[in-house]
UniProtKB/TrEMBL annotation:
GO CC, one annotated term: cell outer membrane
Cleaved signal peptide residues: 1-24
Gene3D superfamilies on file: OmpA-like domain
Full protein name: OmpA-like domain-containing protein
């Protein structure tokens, strides 16, 4: 009977500890977006030797040259022409179409609709936490809507504008990101992440792109 209070205390301590671990794990996704959306600064450590680092070795004098009689030239050997061509390095696929710090997020909508689905709201959760953080509070962001090339270009343009506005409104309503820090624009199919012919269903082009536009 004397051990019951100890077990109850342990259970209460465990219950208080678990939410903290879960919260820390969920913030890793937001931190990743913060790192990608925040402008990178210079480290300022060039030319600085860290404590404990061994100094550079002193230069060693070159040995004196030794002169010898010239050797007889060998018979010329005909070299076979190289037939291999240099292989161009493979470039990694683009993640965004912007030069500024930015991220692309796949946000699912019903066909022809600008209403966020439950999957879309879950995908936007790390972004909402990131934009509401103190790290990104000094910056403004452009919320861009993009589509693939399926359908009429004018319809896609209008749809991308409505979807970008839906994302902006969701971030403001649920995560408290001020409207003054977000500008919603639509680009339709004009800026594809993956180049395709017309009328090609490409999920990677149906996305929301968030771009840091400064303070």
């Amino acid at each position: 009977m004397a051990r019951l209070p100890v077990l109850a205390c342990f259970a209460a301590t465990l219950a208080l500890t678990l939410p903290t671990v879960s919260s820390a794990q969920s913030d890793s996704a937001a931190q990743s977006l913060i790192d990608r959306l925040k402008p990178s600064g210079s480290s300022g450590t060039r030319g600085i030797r860290l404590p404990g680092e061994a100094p550079a070795p002193a230069p060693v004098a070159a040995p004196a040259p030794v002169w010898s009689a010239p050797a007889r030239p060998a018979a010329p050997v005909q070299e076979q022409a190289a037939t291999t061509r240099p292989v161009a390095p493979r470039t990694a696929p683009r993640e965004t179409t912007a030069d500024a710090p930015s991220v692309s997020i796949t946000v699912t909508f019903q066909t022809g609709s600008a209403v966020l689905t439950p999957e879309a709201e879950r995908a936007l959760a790390p972004l909402g936490r990131a934009l509401a953080s103190a790290d990104l509070a000094p910056y403004r962001f452009r919320i861009e809507g993009h589509t693939d090339t399926v359908g009429d270009a004018a319809v896609n343009q209008a749809l991308s504008e409505r979807r970008a506005a839906a994302v902006r409104d969701h971030l403001a309503r649920v995560y408290g990101v001020p409207d003054s820090r977000m500008v919603a624009v639509g680009f339709g199919s004009a800026q594809p992440l993956v180049q395709t012919p017309p009328q090609v269903n490409e999920p990677r082009n149906r996305r929301v792109q968030v771009v840091n536009i400064g303070s």
